[in-house]
Design brief:
Elements lengths: L1 H13 L4 H17 L2 H4 L8 H9 L6 H8 L3 H11 L18 H14 L5 H8 L6 H13 L4 H13 L2 H8 L2
Helix pairs in contact: 1-2, 2-4, 4-6, 5-6, 6-7, 7-9, 8-9
């Protein structure tokens, strides 16, 4: 039944000539996302409306095509969803490293998560650099440490703990650990 519903909904998501069609396309993309209809969402990665692209990217549709959205889409919400979608495709997640230098914090967060879920050894140096950068926000640094932990890389966490033990601010470290 979900497949039949998806087949009926999918054509509604491609229209974009009028404001009503765009609103309908957004709702159709949302429904397809909720139904888990990735094959019907894949063509929507190139839709002109960012909300429609957002749902398509978040679903993980397109695999490698998400790398292009992550690096070149003008909308942060689409780049964030592309990074999130890459977390569903470990074989394509290596391009998520480029998301670590995005201007939007949410994009960086989802890129970190995608790399941690994929367990890519090649991303370890970039994640270590981010985790050790005091100019980055605590939540991004904490997320990088967690991603490294998922890969069995505990050296960065140990070095951060040593610094806090030697120089104080354990309270800030403890607060970051429970977030």
């Amino acid at each position: 039944r979900a497949g039949e519903a998806s087949s009926r909904i999918a054509p509604l998501a491609s229209a974009h000539a009028t404001a009503e069609q765009i609103a309908l396309a957004r709702e159709a993309a949302r429904a397809l996302y909720q139904l888990g209809s990735v094959p019907h969402l894949m063509p929507l990665l190139g839709h002109p409306d960012p909300v429609v692209r957002d749902f398509a990217a978040r679903s993980g549709a397109g695999g490698a095509r998400l790398c292009t959205l992550l690096t070149s889409d003008p909308w942060p919400r689409v780049r964030r969803s592309a990074a999130e979608g890459l977390g569903l495709h470990p074989q394509h997640a290596s391009c998520a490293v480029s998301g670590l230098s995005d201007s939007d914090k949410a994009v960086i967060l989802w890129a970190i998560r995608a790399l941690g879920e994929a367990g890519l050894e090649s991303s370890v140096p970039a994640l270590r650099k981010l985790a050790r950068n005091p100019k980055r926000s605590t939540d991004l640094r904490s997320e990088a440490v967690l991603a490294l932990g998922h890969m069995g890389q505990f050296e960065t966490a140990h070095s951060i703990l040593r610094v806090h033990l030697e120089h104080g601010q354990l309270e800030a470290l403890a607060q970051a650990a429970v977030r």
